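Possible race condition, two jobs.
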Amino acid sequence: MKPLPSLTAVRYFEVSARLQSFTAAAAELHVTQGAVSRMIQTLEEQLEARLFERNGRWISLTPAGKVYHEQITAGLNQIAEASHALRTGADMPALTLSVNAGFSLWLVHNISDFRARHPDIQIDIMLHELGEIDNDPRIQAHIRYGSPPWPGYDSTSLLDRAEMVVVCSPHMKHLDQVREPADLLKQPLLSFAGTRHDPWQDFFGHNGLQMPDLGKSPRFLQMLMMREAAISGLGFTVVPLFLFQRDIREGRLVRALPHTCQTHQGYHFIHRKDEDLNPRVKTFKKWLLARLRATIDAL
């Protein structure tokens, strides 16, 4: 990079040239006229060029000064715009999240709160159902269901053990015959295959029952698909309450039993170790933990 003149002197010159007066420039800059005059003299010495013609109390730009003023004005405007963008977050790369489809059921209904609190941070959301971490360089953070560690990544537990409940369509056939966990053994069950550990194992084990053979049961790699199957009356399924509370409240699904269980895995916020100081990642993680806690407390 070529040597730069004093940027303070350049700013003093721009104001003086725009106002055609050292006195007016001093007033805008909140300094004395002598300070402006000395700074302009310093700049002329650094540039080895005369920028102003001085005629008593009046000044005017030299031909060289006019050319220089046009060029540095464009540069100062770029600096001002870049500084504003950095302060406000405008034109900054979006915070890109990779989220499993199940968690998106909660996130899409809560992200407006984050946007209201942090309008300067743009959020891009990509869906990824399985527990592995995709190494897409565009992604700054991941939300996954599973168990740590994820080598090379830092993880923060969002929910150590989600409360699981059995749900089905309010029009599910034989719903009135299901009064105890054992009654489910005779009913069509929907199985979530998006993790290594089937949630039905937790539910039946917690209630002292043997895990039934689900070899012929519909299996779903995406929780969104399993949700649609349950709503359509295809069977009973066991799901995290905090993800499906909205569907239950609005009548698309009902709890088939009051019984609950805890999962052996949980949701985690995961990011590369070099993203630890990323202010957007830190801000989103702080909001996410607080918002989830409020959701759980309200159940």
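Job #2 (started ~2 s after job #1):
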Amino acid sequence: MPRIDISQISGRVLRVFLTVYDEKSVSRAADVLESSQSTISHNIEKLRGLLGDALFVQSGRGIVPSARADVLAPKVRRILIEMEGLADQGIYDPITDPDPFVIALSSSILDGELETIYDALRLSLPQKHLMFRDLGKLSEIEPLLETRQADVVLTLRPRSYPNTLRHMALTQDSFRVFYDPNVRGPVDSVEDFCGAPHATVSFGQGSKSLLQTELEALAIHRRVTLGVPNLWTLIRLMQGTDMIASLPSRSSRHTTGTLASSPFPVELPPLQFDLVWHRRFADSARLQWLLMTIETALAQQAQDHPNDVGLRAHSFE
């Protein structure tokens, strides 16, 4: 294998490669980097020559990465993150920071926290680009944070976190059983719970939810007849039916006038919601500023509205 002269590979060339890889387009990469298409193409050609690989090939009207590019992309992403860390002198000015804050969360159950965080960031930074994205599966937390596709994640605590992540407890909640009061009454026993048709919503927990694991340990079996991707669809489809749904009690903020709820028929461990970030960036002044702003905003919200379902704990783990 021929030796590669790495002295010819600059941070700028790597940034161009990664942007083209992410955008799957030279023209869009040029827009993102505020450069010309010819400059982008020149940098890609330079890297092609150094690495001896096409990196990107034409496919219809667009381009697709080569197998070599797929292997290189995560490595290049990590290199650029480390290079950016060299410039972090512990002084952070969010006003002059050109990058958006990106927060991933399960929006259908953490919408209250989303609003509080948004208000706090917008108050401090009226012109800042803020991005809130849906988390998806819990298994996506680590790659999202490692590749800086999200700065922080707000999520239901999974069974465990990888040792590359850190988290802070935000709030606890408990399950209640929701139903349409125009069709049926509250669930008053385990037998009633097991005999009713169940509707479920995925909060990114994969094929087996935390609730399902707890129920199986208690030898309690549900008859699931409906599964949906979000809370709002669940509420809509449950109306006028005898289905029941086991949801965090905070879901009642969205069910007023449509669904009622009753206590869960057995005692379960509390649900824990966390703020999560990657250990790699724990010393970043940018991340520390964001964490402090979020923690302060949620703590103030809890103090102002002590009876609301909100922040109840501050603990780094």
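The chain has ten helices and 13 strands.
Logs attached separately.
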